[in-house]
Amino acid sequence: xxxxxxxxxxxxxxxxxxxxxxxxxxxxxxxxxxxxxxxxxxxxxxxxxxxxxxxxxxxxxxxxxxxxxxxxxxxxxxxxxxxxxxxxxxxxxxxxxxxxxxxxxxxxxxxxxxxxxxxxxxxxxxxxxxxxxxxxxxxxxxxxxxxxxxxxxxxxxxxxxxxxxxxxxxxxxxxxxxxxxxxxxxxxxxxxxxxxxxxxxxxxxxxxxxxxxxxxxxxxxxxxxxxxxxxxxxxxxxxxxxxxxxxxxxxxxxxxxxxxxxxxxxxxxxxxxxxxxxxxxxxxxxxxxx
Length: 290
What we know:
about 290 residues; mainly alpha
């Protein structure tokens, strides 16, 4: 990297490049060792335990009725919670970045709330609100409605712990982009929907997909909040993480690790998609600069 000092050119090296080689290799080795110990080895262990009795036992464990029910329920909860949070994230990011209003700081704080509150606490809140002895429990019972220990409670708990992801991905992106393009569209006579679909959405599409992926990964892997509101009803309200816990406590290690390996595969697919989006997003940003 070159810079001009008092009219003359001088070459400045990055500080890290002046470190001795053994320091650089030691730091790289420490980072790789940490990743191997805490990421790679656990993943290998999960798949090894799932397959140690053979591939047929592995697929038999996944084909078991309670396991299939847990898989379907997990996908259903994610299919409901993620699109709702996608819409909320876009609306919240649009409001925060495009408008000035009283209470904006409070809204940003509330969006960050699930990051600081334990998921177990959020599950308890829904039990206190919608449980049989909760605030709305008698009314729900009189109208033959059930939230806790049913699908609605699982969706609500999952939505709470995942709603910051899309909004938090879009807010800094939209703040960086500013409002100049939207103002130009307004001056040309575009309405609100035209501005969103033809100006805003193309600019945020990669960030939106990135946030949605993170939201989906958390929705499928959530344990604490859904554990409180599910009731652990086998075959009805157990998601995949809860089913893994039950099987492991029953010493059904093959079944537990088989379902856990499926969760791990979903996480790896999400990671690959996330990396592809980061690469594509970086290319788009570089192209826009040029």
